[in-house]
Amino acid sequence: MSEHFRVFRTQASALSRSSARWWPLPSPSASCVLREPAPNDLALEAVSTPDLDGVWKQALQTWLPDCLALFWPKIHQRIDWRVAPIFLDQELRRLDRILKRGEKRVDVLVQVRLKSGGEALLLIHLEVQAGRIGVAFRTRMFRYRIRLYERYPKHTILSCAILLDRENGSTTETFQSGGLGDELTFRFPVVNLTRWRRRLPTLEKLAPVNPFAVIVMAYLRYRATRPDITRLAGKLQLARSLAQWGYDDEARGALFFLIDSLLVLPEPLDELFTDTLEEAEDPIMMQQLTSVQRVLLRRQKAALVEAGRQEGRQEGKFEGAALVLQSQLQQKFGSLPDWALTRLAQADTEALQQWALNVLQAERLEAVFGD
What we know:
Helix content: 40-55%
Number of helices: 17
Radius of gyration: 24 Å
Number of strands: 6
């Protein structure tokens, strides 16, 4: 386990807990179709862009077997996972220098043992940038393959790619060269990740036992939502499900951290998300926390209660959440009447939470407020 993973596991462990008193979120079957947000959707508040490079590299290094089991099960079956994979980060950096690669991508180079005997090199290339995949991409994959073959001629080599933002395309890509009587063909498998939003029921079935499926679900929710109430509901749904699945504390903490890193929210909604988790502590889940985690949890709570500032902080937080909800209502129903603005101004946190969920399915403004 990498030292970086140990650090973020510690940071996330105090928040990886659940409760039976979660908001009544939509059932998983209701979320089986995810679509891209419209380009002119209202941006409620500028939020930081997720570190996609870091999220995906950490996910690949932590759950490589689960990635292959999800995307390339036949390859997964050929590898002897009793022998720990060896990540060749130094060799990968050397290849980067040789190829003078400057674009923004994620690559993982790992040595694995095959069940048939012998060593294999696995190069997983993850294309972070959006845009059309063309000849340059296939040429780059071919150059990687040639360099690896030159240095490791006795190894079995597999090159594959995950394309984050391509939905329509083949599951293989091909580099070809020749034309004067000779021909060279290099074909490698690819995953068009955005297409997996059509397979959400499959991901939901696999999520309790395959952590990489959880990361894919979180990414698809990130792609399909703006940083608003809809994303908040989806993030809470994932957090609630994560607590119910059978992961140990370490894996649950790591998954929670990556989910939180992907599904970024504006500050009012982010605080509402955190407070909902802390207010919904379940005694059974709390018993599973280690003594160190309990100390961290108490310190986090103590930091929120500052003498002379707590009341103002709470009021500002609720006001921010009300403004975000108001923007959502205006986007969906147009200008709000005075009675609706009055209800928002006088609402407490429980009412705001319920209305935030109602707006997802309400067809009339009155239905949001339960009228």
